[in-house]
Inverse folding.
């Protein structure tokens, strides 16, 4: 069970959760509630829905997170199997897009995975390839052929310079909306890292290298004047595909004892924005 997998919990009502990340403690999965019955759960509603007892400190990610115990799960939804089941119901151009990208492994998540899609719902796909860059290279070629366009109606109002002017991972193929998450791995990793929070930083950063900025998580090499070199890791789609350059950011800082490096993330109560 890793990033993007969907599980079902049946309490008083049916609730679907989405697994987050590759590293999980032995007693459960780091996850966020996704749907309560037919209703999408917004992030602001989590405190009302999730019991406080499920908020646990997880050493290998260096913060508190919602941990869903194994014994509460009554259904595991395999993204690749549900993709096989739903393939004939997907928009034809999305099937064509999958054929064009030719990943080693593919799955479906989001509303299509739990049969709650509506007319016009975007299709959320999980992809993996031994050669990650090959998927993104094919996306680039499709964009250059005019087959991929920017149709994102949910603008983030973030002035972020991107490699292609807009996100190829969150766009339209022949007019049909899709979201792609290219996974770094498709197996669970031991939760053995020791990450120590060291505070927050708000100010100017310089991204020096977009190191596989199209993968989940996206990773960037960056510099903060007072701290020196840092590594930015982000699981948010909005911060993928950024170009090297100067940004203003609000980041959570931590220190990875194993890798002996400072990690920074905008994902919890933070942001990265372009300048000018």
């Amino acid at each position: 069970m890793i990033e993007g997998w969907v599980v079902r919990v049946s309490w008083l009502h049916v609730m679907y959760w989405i697994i987050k990340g590759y590293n999980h403690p032995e007693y459960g999965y780091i996850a966020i509630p996704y749907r309560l019955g037919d209703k999408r759960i917004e992030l602001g509603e989590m405190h009302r829905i999730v019991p406080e007892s499920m908020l646990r400190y997880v050493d290998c990610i260096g913060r508190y997170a919602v941990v869903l115990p194994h014994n509460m799960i009554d259904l595991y939804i395999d993204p690749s199997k549900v993709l096989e089941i739903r393939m004939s119901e997907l928009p034809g151009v999305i099937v064509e897009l999958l054929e064009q990208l030719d990943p080693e492994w593919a799955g479906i998540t989001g509303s299509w995975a739990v049969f709650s899609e509506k007319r016009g719902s975007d299709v959320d796909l999980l992809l993996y390839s031994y050669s990650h860059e090959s998927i993104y290279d094919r996306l680039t070629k499709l964009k250059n052929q005019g087959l991929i366009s920017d149709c994102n109606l949910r603008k983030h109002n973030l002035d972020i310079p991107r490699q292609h002017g807009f996100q190829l991972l969150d766009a339209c193929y022949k007019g049909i909306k899709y979201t792609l998450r290219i996974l770094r791995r498709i197996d669970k990793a031991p939760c053995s890292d020791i990450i120590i929070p060291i505070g927050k930083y708000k100010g100017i950063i310089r991204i020096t290298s977009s190191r596989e900025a199209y993968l989940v998580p996206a990773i960037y090499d960056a510099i903060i004047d007072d701290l020196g070199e840092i590594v930015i890791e982000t699981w948010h789609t909005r911060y993928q595909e950024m170009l090297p350059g100067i940004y203003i950011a609000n980041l959570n800082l931590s220190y990875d004892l194993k890798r002996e490096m400072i990690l920074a993330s905008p994902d919890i109560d933070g942001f990265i924005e372009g300048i000018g």
Summary: The helical segments are 46-49, 79-86, 92-101, 132-144.
